[in-house]
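Posting here for the record, re: tricarbonodiimidic diamide.
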Amino acid sequence: MSQTVDIAAEPTPFPLTAGRTALIVIDMQRDFLLPGGFGESLGNDVGLLLEVVPPLAALIAAARAAGVMVIHTREGHRPDLSDCPPAKLHRGAPEKRIGDPGRYGRILIRGEYGHDIVDELAPIPGEVVIDKPGKGAFYATGLQDILDAAGITQLLVTGVTTEVCVHTTTREANDRGYECLVVSDCVGSYFPEFQRIGLEMIKAQGGIFGWVAHTAAVIPALHTLTTTAV
Ligand code: TIU
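Prediction output follows.
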């Protein structure tokens, strides 16, 4: 029988189950996080996103120690932009568009320096990296097949941004039947009010999309799995 540890979460305890859980790290890419990158060029303050890095590094380390599968995602496009719909490419009046040359290479283009994950959270060999053209990690990717093959039914959801790619992925996962625990200090938004309300939306109405908990509750639970694993 699988070992289960209850994590203190909202709106109710989350039953973390050994062998059934994956940690998903959404879009912790240089283009979104670093000064001078795409996120900043959209008029955003990247400082709020950089605050996510230390607690997320600790959570990833705890997951690896507990043998929990770690999956990273990157939002981006083919160099020819054939997978970037006009509605995404042409929206607004940004200083820079996807595919334009930026400080870290062509913006949100696969293979460019800015498209890759920040050094502190770099995947290690054997971890899955999902390249996704949309906001959600299930759209036009192999994520569902990978989770099914590994017997995963629960996701610890982290990354950026809370109200965009984290929300979209959590909603997609919830519709597909996955239990989602969003880790509150490991998700970040450029907008403090969206961060607060984004987390409230997930756990409202009895947990309409999932659960929310802080690393102070999640990391000890992962340590329990580590120390009691046979
Ligand atoms: N990863 C993700 O959230 N992509 C975005 O474009 N987010 C913004 O908030 N702009």
